[in-house]
Amino acid sequence: MIALYTFNISHFSEKARWALDYEGVAYQERVLLPGPHQLVTRRIAPRTHVPVLEHDGEYVQGSSAIMDYLADRLGGTRLTAKDPHERAREGEREQVFDNAFGLGVQRVIYSEILKDRAMVTDLWAFGGPFWARGFYRLAYPAVASVVKRMYKTNDPQAVAKAKQRFVEVFDELDAILEKQAYLGGDAPNRSDITVAALLAPICRVPEHRMTWPALPPALASFEAELKGRPTWNHVLHMYRAHRKPAQH
To answer: For residues 121 and 10, what is the distance between their CA atoms, to the nearest angstrom?
Structure first.
């Protein structure tokens, strides 16, 4: 039995879900809520974050580790390079994307949307149990405080650096995608899925399970700097053409 512990809102969870779906690996998804999720993740993994993959009594934490496990233990052949040197280069690129876009989305977006309690409650409670909204009505200040500390959203310098790095990596990908259809060349690889999943909240792709709200006005110029560029359009294309969830 394969189980995947996720958040609906988590773009890292989406990265792991998409990889499993793309490789045709059946799994049971166990969607948790931000905050209460620690009651589960603290029991099964070294750290508290999702996603976590469970397989035959083993637990694998983190989207990149799950993609590696998918290739090494679950028969995945479509996304991860077989050549060790190319795989190592893929891993280095993926770490760049995880930091620039994964952490970048968290730091930049939460720096603004945490001010809108109703919006964030809707996002965190999406698809959750009947008691989710009631829980966040009471626990929002505590959960939001943890998020602020985790992503340094109250540090203007950290947020500014995250925006700068975000745009720098976006520029680098634009240069590649102006010359070829996919970061993987002629077909998607794990870099393509990583970038598409991590940028989905910014690009607000309609095929995503979440209905992403418009970014706050304070981020309008940041969004305008990215919208319609090759990397932005690549994210939309990846979802239209390649995001077909498997039947679990």
So the answer is: 14
